[in-house]
Design goal:
Elements (H helix, E strand, L loop, with lengths): L18 E3 L5 E3 L26 H5 L3 H8 L4
Length: 75
């Protein structure tokens, strides 16, 4: 059995200009951070956490990022 240790050097809030990446090679830059009251919400009134450009998924042919997003709720 192998053990993987991960150390986080600095905890900080994300801000516009920060780059984020997923496990499937998708990456992007934070362009804007909206207050929670300005975010879209679902039929139960829960605001969404993240808004992606829908044109970025088929143009990059990276379907794994769509599969990865709902799996985050299980964690």
């Amino acid at each position: 059995m192998k053990i993987v240790k991960v150390y986080l050097a600095v905890k900080r809030q994300i801000q516009p200009g920060d780059k984020m990446a997923g496990r499937h090679g998708n990456k992007g830059v934070i362009s804007k951070i909206n207050p929670i009251e300005d975010m879209p919400y679902d039929e139960n009134g829960n605001p969404v956490d993240l808004v992606l450009n829908p044109l970025g998924v088929p143009s990059r042919m990276n379907i794994g990022q769509i599969l990865e997003t709902p799996l985050g709720y299980g964690c």
